[in-house]
Amino acid sequence: MRRVILAIVAVLFTAGVASAQNYMVVDSEKVFKSLKEYNDALEQIEQLSQRYQQEVDKKFAEVERLYNNYMVQRAALSENARQSREREILALEAEATKFQESLFGTEGEIMKRRMELIQPIQKKVFDTIDSYAKQKGYDMIIDVAQNATMLYYSAKADKTTELIAILKAE
Known about the structure:
It contains six helices and two strands. With 170 residues, it is mainly alpha-helical. The termini are far apart.
């Protein structure tokens, strides 16, 4: 009997603590897309990506041109000349791949530029969310952007529009 009473008290205590949690829901993607500076940064990154992609395409087109010429002339070349041309084509292809990685890789120019442009905006948004949550007394913030596991939330818990208004007022 004592164990049953203890179990009931524990369940009631847990339920009381859980219901005391104050949370808010935010759609961070909607917040970011509402900011002009974020959209401008994405546009700059897209333009840079397109320009870099053209440069990469030129390098790979040159590799393909050399390879096609080699294939046409291959039968007429000596073994030494074939090996030399193959090494040249492979070296040019490796150089083009390295160039592509230097621009689009995880530590490439595009990623560096993205960090440079987007990080200050992210910091501003996350600092605003943090400040808002502390000011309003929220214990937990749930981000519903691209979250397939969020099955339901009350519209009154969604504070996205309030955060957008605060960010636009700054």
